[in-house]
Amino acid sequence: MVVLIGVIVAIMCVFLLRMYTLAAVSPDERAVADADSMTYQTTVEGARGCILDRNGNVLVSNRATYNIVIINYVLANTGAANENILKLLQMCEQLGIECQSHFPVTNTRPYEYDMQSLSTTWQTYFRQFLNNRDYDLDISASTLMRNLREAYKIPNDWSQEDVYKVISVRYELELRSVATNLENYMLAEDVDAESLAAVAELGIPGVIVQSGTVREYKTAYAAHLLGTLGAMDADEWEVYRENDDYNMNAMIGKSGIEKAFEEYLHGVSGTKITTVSTTGDVLSEYYTKMPEPGNNVETTIDISLQATAEQALEKVILDLRENGVGKNKEGKDAEGGAVVVQQVKTGEVLACASYPTFDLSTYRENFKELSEDEYSPLYNRALLAAYPPGSIYKMVTAIAAIDYGHYSPYHIITDQGLYTYYDSFQPKCYVWSRATGATHGPIDMRQAIAHSCNYYFYEVGRVTYDTAQKEVGYNPFDVIAKALGLGEPTGVELDEETGMRANAETKKEMYVNEDSGWYGADVLQAVIGQSLNRFTPMQMCSYVQALANQGTRYSATFLSRVISWDYQDLILEHEPEIASQLEMSDDAKLCISEGMYLTTQEGTAEEYFKYYPVKVACKTGTAQWQGTTSSGAFGGSDHASFVLYAPADDPEIAIAVYVEKGSKGGNLSNVCIPILDAYFSSATHYETVMTENTAD
Fold it and tell me: Are 71 and 40 in contact (CB under 8 A)?
């Protein structure tokens, strides 16, 4: 009994000592430190925050993923590293698992370097690798392959294909001892469970499975807005390296909302310390820093309205390509386009569509095909394409004519068809031709907006410019266009082009070595939205939003709120911000509102909106252009533009549509009508809906 009790007491002492060690000894002291073990550090990314629409619908979330990782220390101690690597690679090939390597040599003879496929960071790693082996930096690819085959002791009877595969993996493993900031080599990402089981059955020491997350897309829409993720390049690392929440291998937003709201979406990385034996057994594992998930970003986008906008835009463009418009079937060469929808009183972007578009879930697999597509589906036309606006610019000219040229909204001018004030430049009204002699006849400024009479605006534009030069000494159209947001940043958080306004300064910059004078002909072209005027669809929407607000322009935004990862805390809520304000006379306000409303009652959009149940104020535009299109072709149909706000008497939303080679702006009403139907059929009118578990 004494012996038995003694044994029990001894066992209890051992357990108590072990418990004390686990509870009281520091992590560094806990690490196993014998000659037959190896300790390594793993960065565990904090889950990235979700992206939601304004109503709480999740657009982008995370999905659990499993990756195949190789621990070089364990693999090397098997004594058969090459054989095990080959066996692993053959299994991966059989299962269709895509293995990744940054080995910069082509896989067939004659071997050549392929440095262009590597980022500057991985090119630097390769140079470090050569230096560590005392190889010349100008060593040929063939010599490098021969040297590495000897160094890695790869059998002579192996095929060249197998030799290359093994060398590419051995190179990655060796890099981990050369570049201290690289973690264990991840051979393959996002491997399915069945394939993982097959790899595990091989029983190769040092081959382990690590969990992680990848982005999962809950919508097929808004691809240009949501954006993409990617590994940091050298320049980006210089920006983030001082931030403890990032490691060099962290994934960051590369475009769209992922990039714009990186600071909120990115989770805080954690650090895990693992000690393994030579056989791969885990001896100890603990965190020195726990990972933290990122916050959720609620955007201003309504995904239902976004889907409607994308579908309507696609339908109109495809119909143009098939049927064209008018007796000449213009528009059959239509290429791409964009539509933007904003709330008038806040500047919030409800929808922002670019066509053609793409599928974010297959973006990487289809990148080469997408980048070579003649219609440039990766190009976000809504924010990055600056186009001549055409006649939608005429509201700028009307405001200037009233407030600087001293015209009345009811001032009548008789359209003569051909404007002959200048001998050297005689433009015409679009309805006039020598064969028919058709004109708009006597017409006032409101009607000139409604019927888009070029002749009227040539006359009032010329006189207004000359009057303003004498009285105030500057270009009044430029001042008004700027205040209304044309050629100015809209405020959106995503990358955007600012375009340019037609004026003497812009022309001087554009024509450095040519005649850069600003003449009467330039003024005539500028006042109808031609000349050097170039604006994005987003700017065009902000412009009509400002008109709806009678001169007050709100900054455009995609950000509604930022919410904690568990939806418990409100981190940030966006407040409307006035970007600019134009003081307009009452006559100018009346002219714009009545002129744009008349467009739907007797003007160029009458057939689309005269009997629409909601009163609409709009303007159509047709823009001539010069140069090549996105497909590289020269010439073709005119561009088409269209802007509106509704309701006309109490504006809530503004819409801008643009189609490359769309021919007639009025036809773009067919893009807007489904959007208006969807918006005004909603009882909530797209107010933010609090989601479950969201703090007050």
Answer: yes
More confident residue, 415 or 177: 415
The predicted pLDDT at position 348 comes to: 98
Give the sheet arrangement for strand 639-646, strand by strand: 349-355, 337-343, 653-659, 639-646, 617-623
**Residue that is written with structure tokens 């597509």 in the block:** 373
CA pair distance 562, 189, nearest whole angstrom: 30
DSSP conformation letters of 16-38? HHHHHHHHHS-HHHHS--STTEE
> Which pair of structure tokens corresponds to residue 156?
């002579």
Alpha-carbon distance of 162 to 86, in angstroms, equals: 7
CA–chain centroid gap for 253, Å, is 10
Q: Measuring CA to CA, which residue among 492, 495, 511 is closest to residue 503?
A: 511
Tokens of 423: 């001998």
**45: left (phi > 0), else alpha (psi -120 to 50), else beta?**
beta
For residue 261, count other CB atoms closer than 10 A to its CB: 24
Q: Which of 191, 255, 269, 246 is nearest to 225 (CA)?
A: 255
Query: Nearest to residue 244, comparing CAs of 27, 43, 499?
Result: 43
Instruction: Count the neighbouring beta carbons within 10 Å of the beta carbon of residue 452.
Output: 27
Round to whole Å and give the CA distance between 312 and 440.
32
10 Å CB burial of residue 430 (0-12, 13-18, 19+) is: middle
DSSP states along 650-670: S--EEEEEEETT---GGGGHH
Give bridge partners of residue 343 from the DSSP assignment. 653
**Which residues are CB-contacts of 572 (< 8 A; sequence separation ≥ 6)?**
264, 559, 561, 562
Residue 380 has pLDDT above 70, yes or no: yes
- The string of DSSP codes covering 192-243 is -HHHHHHHHHT--TTEEEEEEEEEEES-SS-HHHH--EEE--HHHHHHHTT-
Pairing of strands 296-299, 51-52: parallel
Is the Cβ–Cβ distance between 61 and 216 less than 8 Å? yes
Amino acid at 571: I
Residue 159 φ/ψ region, left for φ over 0, alpha for ψ in the -120 to 50 degree band, beta for the rest: beta
Residue 257 CA to residue 225 CA, distance in Å, equals 6
Residue 344 contacts residue 550 (beta carbons within 8 Å): no
Distance CA 552, CA 555 (A): 10
Q: Would the CA dihedral through 611, 613, 618, 621 be positive or negative? A: negative
Closest-CA residue to 660 (of 636, 689, 640)? 640
| Backbone conformation region of residue 495, classed left if phi is above 0, alpha if psi is from -120 to 50, else beta | beta
Please give the helix or strand (H or E) that residue 253 lies within, else none. strand 251-253
pLDDT, one tens digit per residue, over 33-86 is 445 788 888 778 888 999 999 999 999 999 989 999 999 888 988 889 999 999
R_g of the chain computed on alpha carbons: 33
Task: Please give the Cα distance from 639 to 625 (Å, whole number).
Answer: 7
Which pair of structure tokens corresponds to residue 258?
């992922």
Nearest to 543 by CA among 492, 481, 499: 481
| Distant-in-sequence, close-in-space partners of 590: CB < 8 Å, separation ≥ 6 | 409
For the cut 60, the answer to whether the pLDDT of residue 687 exceeds it is: no
Are the beta carbons of 167 and 161 closer than 8 angstroms?
no
| Most distant CA atoms of the chain, gap in Å | 126
Pairing of strands 559-563, 296-299: antiparallel
